[in-house]
Amino acid sequence: MTKRKPKFLFINAVDNTREIQTSIPPLGLGYLISSLKEKFGDNAITFKIISDQIEREIKSFKPDIIGITSVSQNYNLAIKYAKIAKKYGLPVIIGGVHITALPSTLADEMDVAVVGEGEETILDLFDTYKKRGVFDKKNLKKIKGIAFKQRGKIVLTGKRKIIEPLDKIPMPDRSLMKIGSSASMFTSRGCPYRCTFCASSRFWGKIRFFSAEYVVKEIKYLFNYYKVKRIDFWDDLFVADRKRLKRIFFLLKKEKLLGRLSFACSVRSNLVDQELAKLLKKMGFERVSMGLESASPRTLEYLKGRNINLNNHLGAIKNLKKYKIQVGASFIIGSPQETKTEILQTLKFIKKHQLRGFDVYVLTPLPGTPIWEYAKKNGLVNEKMNWNTLDVDFAKNHQKAIILSEKLTREELYRLFLKFAQEQKRKLIIYALNNPLKIPGYLIEEVKEKLLGKLYEHYVLLKTSVGFLKRKIS
């Protein structure tokens, strides 16, 4: 490495054609940067975060080291970017949920993989590289929580202990991210539940929480420094520790922040009683989202286990609405044994209950989940697959996307999916008409398109009716 200040280029491997991916700040990289700054000094390293124009950025920024983060859906992009980096002789670190679940997919162009959470691992890796200018295998073997290739074989150095307490981690550095009137935060890692389709609890290990004091300190910072008006908590289950939640409320009140900004988070229906709904309202929560997944008892149990039922869903919606908290939800169709009748049960539930909005997904096997193991056993996926084929956008690629249903054909499942999409479109139009200023940025174009489409439908209907009347009169 040269004597000049080292440059670290982080690449967020996302699909740049999907604004929902590009509009979300990469907080995971922010934690890595803040950890490196704390260890080596605020001005010891020059950082940059990018998500596109990779080769151009490498030429202009001239980094010494590359770090890439990726989920499975975009892992083909991560490999592509690693190949570009290697053209310029740059060392490449890969991290994220995909490589943690499947370190065997480490590409030849990637020098080392961070397996699991990376705030402490990245310090060891950068320290090793800084001292020697290379990632030599002898020293890599001394670092826990990584994977690398030696003579064509994957070497795993063993698990690194999870970080406890989480307050040891400095707040994520957002200086290289676009922060508007709304911001996002993580206040915990992991989840106490183990849904069959989710890799989170497997990735993070046991659930851990940032303290209420840490959380409120970060909220206060976002409010004072960035002037944010709304914060979205991206925790898998922000409300999992109610004692901590009450402490956060107390500290927000103490800091005179109550009523000065609003919040949103994800909840689980079996935890939402009247006390929780009331507390969330007092804290300033305008909306919450729930992974309801299904209105079929059998499918719900398959996806989320036996500790949740349809009555929990109904009670949660009732309690949240009582305190005028908007309720959004997500649903999953296409479980292996789910029938058409059961899927339509879920659609009927959605139509009956006035949700702020909802998303529907076709069950897709992602690495690190029991669903992946099921799909692997049935020959639908494997570790050597081309990750381009792991298409989770069933709506755009239903003919090629991986499906697990054993009861429905691909076309039958698609027709059912379209019924949900139609209802989603209807709810989105109603919400947009009633709340034009609250539409998320990444949905504006979609809303415009659907609104214009609906208006055109009415125009055609009106024109047809007028023509019919003219003919009758003549």
What would you note in describing this structure?
The protein is α/β, with parallel strands linked by helices and 474 residues long. Among the domains are: 7-156, Rossmann fold; 439-474. 42% of the residues lie in helices and 15% in strands. It contains 17 helices and 15 strands. The chain has helices at 19-22, 27-40, 54-61, 75-87, 97-101, 121-132, 137-140, 200-204, 212-225, 242-254, 274-283, 297-304, 310-322, 340-352, 370-377, 410-434, 444-473, and strands at residues 7-12, 46-50, 65-69, 92-95, 112-114, 146-150, 153-156, 182-185, 188-189, 208-209, 230-233, 262-267, 285-293, 326-333, 357-362. A 7-stranded mixed β-sheet has the order 2-1-3-4-5-6-7. A 6-stranded parallel β-sheet has the order 8-11-12-13-14-15. Strand 6 (146-150) and strand 7 (153-156) form a beta hairpin.
Summary of the model, kept short:
The chain contains 17 helices and 15 strands.
Strand-helix topology:
Elements: E1 7-12, H1 19-22, H2 27-40, E2 46-50, H3 54-61, E3 65-69, H4 75-87, E4 92-95, H5 97-101, E5 112-114, H6 121-132, H7 137-140, E6 146-150, E7 153-156, E8 182-185, E9 188-189, H8 200-204, E10 208-209, H9 212-225, E11 230-233, H10 242-254, E12 262-267, H11 274-283, E13 285-293, H12 297-304, H13 310-322, E14 326-333, H14 340-352, E15 357-362, H15 370-377, H16 410-434, H17 444-473
Parallel strand pairs: 1-2, 1-3, 3-4, 4-5, 8-11, 11-12, 12-13, 13-14, 14-15
Antiparallel strand pairs: 5-6, 6-7, 9-10
